[in-house]
Amino acid sequence: MTENASRQYQTQQIMTASPAMLVFMLFDKAISSLNAAVRAIAANDVQERWRNNKRAIEVISRLQMTLNMELGGEVAENLDRLYGFMLKLLSTVDPNDDPKPAEDVIKLLEPLRESWRELANQGDKPAREAAKIAAEAAKAKSAADAKAAAEAKAANGGNGNRSSAPGENQAGTPEGPDTPKAHERVSVSA
């Protein structure tokens, strides 16, 4: 395969990957870069060590920068600290020509990579299950609203005072699984 064809394939993989698969790919790239840096240290190849360690630092920095601290909460805070620790370790690889920090970071990255691989392999199954639960909750709310509206109408003796109809808020605006609010998604931060 030519280098150009390989790049085109890689670009296609990235462009069609799910967000979870993209995060997995970043972890995988960081680990492969660090393994290459460790091999370069063993071979006394300073340029290759520097290039691969730099790439791993860039990937981990990107992962850290894309954390959503607001939605990610405590998990995002812990990952932020972990990424900071990894970057501190990797900053010692080049000046000391030492593979140990790179090996330590690989050990920290591997379980994260495997978690993201599992998540990516689940595809959109969690999203479909969440949408199904949201739709069931919306139906239950709609039924409860209809019952409450009927009870309010009966209590008012049918005098024409309008309460909100089932599936509407007080302003008469529809609410339910097809409104933008119902489509808010929980983001996985990493």
- The total domain count is 2
Q: What's the CATH class of the largest domain, please?
A: Mainly Alpha
User: By CATH's scheme, which homologous superfamily of the largest domain applies?
Assistant: Flagellar protein FliS
The number of helical runs is 7
Give the proportion of residues in helices.
over 70%
- Computed CA radius of gyration, to the nearest angstrom: 26 Å
Distance between the termini: 33 Å
What string gives the helices and strands in order? HHHHHHH
Describe this structure in words.
The chain is mainly α and 190 residues long. It folds into two domains: 3-121, Flagellar protein FliS (Four Helix Bundle (Hemerythrin (Met), subunit A)); 125-183. It has helices at residues 3-16, 19-42, 46-65, 69-90, 93-96, 100-121, 125-155. Helix 2 (19-42) runs antiparallel to helix 3 and helix 2 (19-42) runs antiparallel to helix 6 (100-121). The radius of gyration is 26 Å and the shape is elongated. 18% of the residues are buried. Residues 162-190 have low confidence and may be disordered.
